[in-house]
Structure formats: C-alpha cells, structure tokens
Amino acid sequence: MIPNIAYVRKKFEEFNHQCFEGSLPQIPIRMSNARNYLGAVQYKVKRNLVGSLEYSNLVLRISMRFDLPKKEVEDTILHEMIHLYIYVNGIKDSSAHGEVFRRMMNEINTKFGRNISIRHHRTDKVSNTDRKEKPHVVCVTRLNDGKRFVTVCARTRVIDIYNVFNRSPQVSEMQWFYTTDPFFNRYPNSLTPKVYKIADKDLDKHIKSAIPLECDGRRMLRKK
Question: What is the mean pLDDT of each run of 10 residues along the chain (224 residues)?
Fold first, then answer.
C-alpha cells in the first residue's frame, strides 16, 4: 500500500493508545516523496543566547514514494513513534537506535506481534517498489579489470564527473546515457565520481532503451 495522511493519522492515534498509553503529543504529520527514507521525526535546532539548544517545529514525515505491505508501513510509523517517545520525554540514549530504543522496540514487537526493525531505510526490496519515472544521467564505466560499474550523476556535476573519469588511469571505457527508468532510482545522485557495482544482466536490461550521450567538452549531447 501507499500510505496517505488520513491513514497515518489513524494509525498514529491507534498505536499511541495501544503501545504508548496515549502519552505522545499530537504532532503535525506530513507526507513526503522522499526516496532516502520511509519515515522520520524531524525538528529544527538552534542555539539560544545562553548557548543552550532549543528544538522546535517537531513533525512526523512518512514517505509515500514506495508501495509496501500494510504491516511494513505500520511498523515504520511505530519506529518513528519510539523516536518521538524518547525525544518528548528527554531520555538520553546511547545512540540514535541505542539501548533505550532497542528495548522499547523489542517490548512492542513481543507484546503486540510487530516486526519493527532498527533500520527501515531503503533496502533492495524497498527500492524495487519505487516506480516513479524521473530523468537520470547515467555513466557506465568499465575498469581495467573488466568489471562494469554505474554512476547516476547529479545534473550539475555531469561534466566534472566526466572529466575525472576521462583522466582516470583505472577507467578503460565509459559510456553515458539519459534514461527515465525507475531502476536507477535506487542509486544516489552523485556529486562526486562514485561508482556502484551492477550485474551485467541488470545493466544490459535497463540500459537497452536509454538514449546514448556524448560530451562535446562543455555539455552532454545526444549521441549522433
């Protein structure tokens, strides 16, 4: 399912009473199109005149970018509600998902039959549900050992990345493409020349319909 704000509000209220004894405040809920997280509790931090940190604009954000099983969406909401409980009660934890978080997570999982996990950010399984078409400039590099890698380039850094790869003694070949294939949504938009291993069968399948590009020294153009 792809969650909407009405569903998230309903589950928040339900879980608040069921798992947190109604102790959590009703904070703003916002839906997002984020592809790098499923859920997040966010706030602004500033330092006041005496040097102490002040927190404001607390909000729960849930991504509707991915089509996931209902239980996974619910566990994402619960994951963020644990963060909220720790935050509003001023509890010091050993890390973002430290001893307190893990203890609460395990208690809720055991008592209510949930499957909340420490990390609910993007996995291959989650990435495969991101089917939104968006433009990508993709570089396929072949290194001296014959292995191929892929880089999805930030649009403002294409020429910079091209120049680095072009000068690198490790790169034996590079090809550039324009594509809107959602397969490439799983890769970050690189600001620097970072390469990611990709299986030949996946690359060949998803680059098949892409538009080849070439560089004239200043910009990427459709290959003639």
Answer: 92 96 92 83 73 73 85 93 90 88 94 84 50 85 91 90 92 93 84 88 90 89 87
Q: What angle do CA 182, 158, 176 make, to 5 degrees?
A: 60
**What is the predicted pLDDT for the residue at 64?**
85
pTM exceeds cut of 0.70:
no
Residue 205, CA distances (Å) to 152, 199, 201 in order: 16, 10, 6
Cβ proximity of 148 and 184 under 8 Å: no
